[in-house]
Amino acid sequence: MDRLLVLVRHGQSDWNLKNLFTGWKDPDLTEKGVDEARTAGRRLKDLGLSFDVAYTSALTRAQNTCTLILEELGQTGLATVRDQALNERDYGDLSGLNKDDARARWGEEQVHVWRRSYDVSPPGGESLKDTVARVLPYYCQEILPRVLRGERVLVAAHGNSLRALVMVLDRLTPKTIPSMELDTGVPLVYRLNADSTVASKQVLAG
Ligand SMILES: O=C(O)[C@@H](CO)OP(=O)(O)O
Questions:
Q1: Which InterPro entries does this one have (predicted)?
Q2: Domain contains 109
Q3: Which domain holds residue 25?
Q4: How many A from CA of 116 to the centre of ligand 1?
């Protein structure tokens, strides 16, 4: 049985381009982001992949990425579940601030800790650990059972909500997760074993 799970971070957003902390704010894709989403769809199609269900967040940039991928696959109208459990990590008081301005104000090191550490939360926001605690139950209850039944599942979400999932799938640790980056619009193609561990992983980068 092909237990297929594809994770893809949304294409470039307007606030990615402007270098702003985004979190639960809701900017749309840039033109480049639209291209990245379409390219992701074409790469999946070139592999001969298609899906039985798609999951995305409650945020526009992920939803539109999902729609564009499905268009490229000729699967417009596929059953798609939108849930805020898959939203980006909430950046709290940092949301809307420029990342370079934040570095100038609080220092490179502190900003890196807020962005990439496992358990340090930005003021008013979620740490990656908090994000794992939100995303993982949703994955285990809603997504994983479908994959294990042999449904082919696409998840279009966000840098940090997907880092939370990849951390679990790839068995990364609080020490190794800080160096793990996800590029916009690059699908991660996982095949799972019956016990939900990873059988294979393919990164569909250029
Ligand atoms: O701003 C954000 O919400 C995220 C993703 O774009 O940024 P970072 O890579 O700094 O976690």
A1: His_Pase_superF_clade-1, His_PPase_superfam, PG/BPGM_mutase_AS, Phosphogly_mut1
A2: yes
A3: 11-56+71-152+168-203
A4: 9
160 in a known ligand binding site: yes
Task: Look up the pTM and report it.
Answer: 0.98
Tell me if 161 is assigned to some domain.
no
Q: What three-state secondary structure class fits 20?
A: strand
Question: Is the alpha carbon torsion for 86, 91, 93, 95 positive or negative?
Answer: negative
10 catalytically annotated: yes
Residue of 36, 72, 88, 126 marked active site: 88
Output phi, psi for 199, to 5 deg. Answer: -85, -40
What CATH number corresponds to the domain at position 16? 3.40.50.1240
Q: Is the ipTM of this complex over 0.95?
A: yes
CA 110 to centroid of ligand 1, rounded, Å? 15
Count of domains for the chain:
1
Six-digit token string for 168: 């679990």
